[in-house]
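Final report, section 2: Outcomes. Of the targets proposed, 4Fe-4S ferredoxin-type domain-containing protein is the one most frequently requested by collaborating groups, and we therefore present its record in full.
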Amino acid sequence: MTTSSSKFKFITCDPELCVGCQLCEYICSYTKTGEFNTYHSRIRTVRAEEILITAVACRTCEDAPCVIACPRDALIQDKDTGIIHVDNSKCDGCAWCVVACDFGAISIDPASKLAEICDQCEDVEGGPQCVIWCPKEALELVTADQLAQKARRKLAVKEVLGK
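The predicted structure is given below as tokens.
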């Protein structure tokens, strides 16, 4: 089972830039439900350490564990984009997908009791609104290869500058 892919794009967060403002959560909930309520967000800010905050969204894994774990076949992964869609007529809120996700990127909506997963605002002009509205530009839509290349560049610069 592969939990990363160079093929599909996903939203990533640079914890060095993220200040934990939760604007990504608010804009996501507003885009999806029309209300500013972080409980309805499909991206989550997470405090990893006392001063380390990051945001987590679906990583569009190849052979996605959440899709495999769903006993009702309610999760369908788009073979071209990797985006995972929830068939609400099949989802019963069992949360097996939540447990199967290595990244903690799936939640159960408290009102509908159905799984919710980031769809990269595929139905919204301009794409992921959290990326657009992030005031610190901490969020980015990338592939695993692009993320790895960015990390290599950052390391090379650090070595050259001796920092």
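The CA atoms of residues 3 and 64 lie 7 Å apart.
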